[in-house]
Write a structure and sequence with these properties.
There is one protein chain. The chain is built from 14 helices and 25 strands. By secondary structure, it is α/β, with parallel strands linked by helices. It has three domains: about 110 residues, no CATH class; about 300 residues, Peptidase S8/S53 domain (Rossmann fold), CATH 3.40.50.200; about 100 residues, Immunoglobulin-like (Sandwich), CATH 2.60.40. The chain has a seven-stranded parallel sheet, with helices on both faces. It has a six-stranded mixed sheet with strand order 17-25-24-19-20-21, with no helix packed on it. Helix 8 packs parallel to helix 11. The radius of gyration is 24 Å and the shape is globular. The termini are far apart. The N terminus is likely disordered.
């Protein structure tokens, strides 16, 4: 990544703040046509750790996206009084603030392929720790984290990158202070204000504790309370701040991309980010549309896909918290096909929690990929899953990011009958370890049945209580509505049935009828329903295919 002098960055940020409300100047992506390959040697541009990572994963050491942006291009821009704010070698582009007359001037440069406005907002949608927790976070319980702890799998020697707002008071939080004390923070950078070198003891905004809470969900362990919040308690971290928590303004997407490229350069293979881009523009005409959450439009999504497909990085990213709004769907870069997009469920019943964003219907692949419990946003279900990934990486360091993603999905309780509400469901540590040894392993909790009539019956043992989550789908993955049926022992004639409140009226009218009598569950097919998934936690996934 090309080094940008601190004075230039500070000057650029002052310009950004001064002109934020002025329509005459705007931030743009300036994309270049080619790169100068003369004299490029990957050994001089990649760290030893990055070279080692790629060699192990059989990833090419020479990649065009690693070649730095041509310096003469930037020099030419500077000669036109254009100050570069951010540089992305992966996208072969820079960002800069341009006046209208400069836009036309830059577009006419022979080495420039496009000039596009930046118009999106950022939403904050080897220590020896003897882990013997008396208390364990509900998300860890859902994912059977005790399987990891009982096998001594704790993320030792795994390096995790976290891209967020700030990490204020990481050293004072009882659950994360050990990371600072034992020098597990390997590096930190502020891409908003390059003059800042300390993201922990000092805050830049009132939201700078968000990243601290994210790290807590990856690796948090309170030795006094013996309370464990995250699974990767012996991991190390690189921290990046790309979000100004006091504002929702244009231009932070490029900072996020620079942070990811930096983490790749120091050899990070696992990145967790709880940020996303979608709507809330000053000018509504600049908002993303649902159709643009397609895995190939947003630049941050393009960069995320490069990270996965070319650099061997596994990116865990929050799906978003817009599930109970008009927007509803995931945000970028959660729409990238390679990203491990994470939604959120309730704790006791493993249904989608209302705020968790759903996958767009137009995507040819499933989003989100997996989910787990979080009461306060997918910002915290995402790092919980990142800790899970770190443990798998520790268990078998030879697994590629592609293999890791597949194992995590296959270990989840709905697999292979995932949906656009919670993906393949909640990953299970015991299954993941088995899949690490045998990727073809299948589990007997999944039953598929084709029903020729519009009524299906299933009998449960009358001596037990059972909570069922029912997903009614119009095809293999797209959910029309979800229902929760709680059947109490000895009172099977009067089950409690809950239906999420925001469902469109047409879905309420056409929802399947559910009844229970004498331990027998009856599901009546609703209009437009092609499949119904009935789930009892990790113990049973029943896929009803209506003919």
């Amino acid at each position: 990544m090309q080094t940008i002098q601190r004075a230039i960055i500070v000057s650029s940020l002052l310009i950004a703040f001064f002109f934020q409300g002025n329509a005459q100047i705007q931030k743009y992506w300036i994309s270049f046509k080619d790169k100068d390959l003369s004299g490029y040697n990957y050994e001089n541009n990649l760290s030893a750790q990055t070279i080692s990572n790629r060699t192990i994963q059989h990833i090419p050491l020479f990649q065009y996206t690693d070649v730095p942006v041509t310096t003469s291009n930037i020099s030419t821009l500077n000669s036109l009084d254009v100050t570069v704010v951010a540089t992305s070698k992966w996208l072969n582009a820079v960002t800069a603030y341009l006046a209208p007359e400069q836009v036309n001037q830059v577009r006419q440069l022979t080495f420039v392929s496009s000039v596009e406005p930046v118009g999106v907002y950022l939403v904050a949608s080897s220590t020896d720790i003897n882990v013997a927790p008396d208390l364990m976070h509900p998300a860890m319980k859902q994912m059977k984290a005790k399987t990891f702890t009982s096998n001594g799998i704790d993320g030792t020697n795994i390096t995790i990158g976290v891209i967020d707002a700030g990490f204020h008071k990481l050293h004072e939080d009882p659950a994360t202070s050990y990371l600072v004390r034992d020098k597990k923070i390997l590096g930190q950078r502020d891409f908003i204000d390059r003059s800042r070198t300390d993201l922990i003891s000092k805050a830049a905004t009132s939201s700078d504790d968000h990243g601290r809470q994210v790290v807590r969900m990856i690796a948090g362990y309170d030795t006094t309370l013996k309370a464990q919040y995250g699974m990767a308690v012996n991991a190390s971290f690189y921290l990046a701040r790309t979000e100004n928590g006091d504002r929702e303004y244009r231009g932070e997407e490029d900072m996020w991309i620079m942070a990811m490229e930096w983490m790749d350069s120091v050899g990070v293979r696992l990145i967790s980010t709880s940020l996303g881009y979608a709507i809330k523009m000053d000018d509504p005409n600049d908002n993303y549309t649902e159709e643009q959450m397609d895995g190939k439009t947003a630049r941050i999504t393009k960069a995320a896909q490069i990270a996965f497909s070319q650099k061997g990085i596994l990116l865990a990213v929050s799906a978003g918290n817009e599930g109970d709004t008009n927007w509803r769907i995931i945000s970028a870069p959660a729409d990238a096909e390679g990203a491990l997009s994470v939604g959120a469920t309730n704790s006791l019943n493993w249904d989608r929690i209302s705020y968790s964003s759903i996958g767009p219907e137009n995507l040819p692949y499933l989003k989100p990929n997996v989910s787990c419990y979080s009461p306060n946003g997918t910002s915290f279900s995402c790092p919980a899953i990142a800790g899970f990934v770190a443990c798998l990486m520790k268990n078998d360091s030879t697994l590629s990011n592609v293999q890791l993603k597949n194992i995590i999905q296959k270990s989840a309780h709905l697999y292979p009958y995932g949906n656009n509400y919670i993906g393949y469901g909640i990953p299970q540590a015991d299954r993941a370890l088995e899949l690490s040894k045998d990727t073809l392993k299948k589990f007997d909790n999944v039953v598929s049945i084709t029903v020729s009539k519009d009524l299906y019956k299933y009998t449960f043992d009358e001596t037990i209580s059972v909570d069922l989550v029912v997903f009614n789908k119009k095809n293999e993955t797209i959910v029309m509505n979800q229902q929760v049926v709680s059947i109490e022992k000895g009172d099977r004639k009067n089950p409690i049935i809950k239906i999420e409140r925001w469902i469109p009226k047409i879905h309420l009218i056409n929802r399947p009828g559910i009844s229970v009598k004498n331990g027998k569950l009856k599901i009546k097919r609703g209009k437009g329903v092609a499949r119904t998934t009935v789930v009892a936690d990790e113990f049973l996934t029943l896929e009803i295919i209506w003919e």
